[in-house]
Design a protein that fits this description.
Blueprint: H1 3-26, H2 38-54, H3 69-81, H4 87-106, H5 116-142, H6 146-165, H7 170-190, H8 203-220, H9 225-240, H10 242-245, H11 251-282
Helix pairs in contact: 1-2, 1-7, 2-3, 2-7, 2-8, 3-4, 3-8, 4-5, 4-8, 5-6, 5-8, 5-9, 6-7, 6-8, 6-9, 6-11, 7-8, 8-9, 9-11
């Protein structure tokens, strides 16, 4: 894809869509505290715009199960509407989305790559990662300066996009970049009105996009389990270190420290993904030319579009 076109449909369009929705729904010239759930809708639309423009909106049920995430983001927006005081309900609902995603991803692999026990364990792991992402993002960003929270979320999503790219699914990395573009737009708005950048309510949307694409890469490409787990626990690390994050008094340090801390597990995940990618590229198997099906482990070397 032409770099200019890629930038327009993968960065500019999602950013403009997110900015327009936030301004329309939150009306910051009045009260910037109105409609906090709008950030979840704005980020979902940013991701959806990027996906539709890059890959086209998937059918239902999707022909390619790694393209199910745009449909899962729709109920994730519904969870974003729930008040924060029902934290357990939000976490359980996001975990349920993780189970649904697991059923869609694991269905084609049942009886071929995994037995019943392995299917159950994988489903529980995927659901747990969705819940960990949602809970960690929600709790960590609630206690941070909104601009610091969105920068930390941007670090996580950018790291996930890099890991997905290194898993030989460049197209899914591109559409994940649409979510990153939406987060960047929120940060820019936060420089004007800080509360516009708060992504606490949007945690289910971010968790669904990151979790769904990461596990698609693990199960159907060259993704690694360790990478998915490291990225899933990154928000929990931030929440665990919340007392440390509250110490900086200068604005620059207050904004940068959470992102720098998030960069440790995110960087480790990216390093693991890169080591696997370059190790595999040095022993790359010639792609099949007879249209044969993927190997039994679900990995298709021809899937890196």
């Amino acid at each position: 894809m032409d770099p200019v076109q890629a930038g327009l449909i993968g960065v500019v369009a999602p950013s403009v869509a997110a900015t327009a929705l936030i301004l329309l729904l939150r009306r910051p010239w009045g009260s910037a505290n109105a409609a906090p759930w709008a950030t979840g809708l704005a980020l979902a639309v940013a991701y959806g715009v990027a996906f539709a423009l890059i890959l086209g909106w998937p059918s239902l049920p999707p022909i390619d199960m790694t393209h199910a995430t745009p449909w899962l983001v729709i109920p994730a927006v519904g969870i974003a509407f729930l008040p924060l005081r029902v934290a357990k309900g939000r976490a359980l609902a996001t975990a349920a989305l993780g189970l649904l995603n697991a059923a869609m991803l694991l269905g084609p692999l049942a009886g071929r790559s995994f037995d019943a026990t392995e299917l159950v364990l994988h489903a529980l792991l995927i659901a747990a990662s969705f819940a960990a992402l949602q809970t960690g993002i929600e709790r960590a960003t609630a206690e941070l300066d909104p601009r610091a929270g969105v920068l930390a979320a941007l670090t996580l999503v950018s790291g996930a996009a890099a890991a997905i790219l290194l898993s030989d699914i460049a197209s899914l990395a591109q559409v994940t970049g649409g979510l990153a573009a939406g987060l960047g737009a929120l940060f820019a708005l936060g420089l004007w009105r800080p509360e516009l950048a708060r992504v606490t309510h949007a945690a289910p949307v971010i968790a669904t996009v990151v979790g769904g694409t990461l596990w698609g890469a693990v199960l159907y490409a060259n993704g690694r389990y360790e990478v998915a787990v490291l990225l899933a626990i990154t928000p929990l690390v931030l929440w665990a270190l919340r007392s440390t994050l509250a110490r900086p008094r200068r604005l620059l340090a207050r904004l940068a420290v959470p992102a720098l801390i998030a960069l440790v597990p995110v960087g480790a995940a990216a390093g693991l993904a890169a080591s696997a990618y370059f190790a595999d590229s040095s022993e790359q198997v010639a792609p099949a030319t007879d249209g044969s099906a993927p190997a039994d482990d679900g990995y298709d070397p021809n899937y890196g579009y």
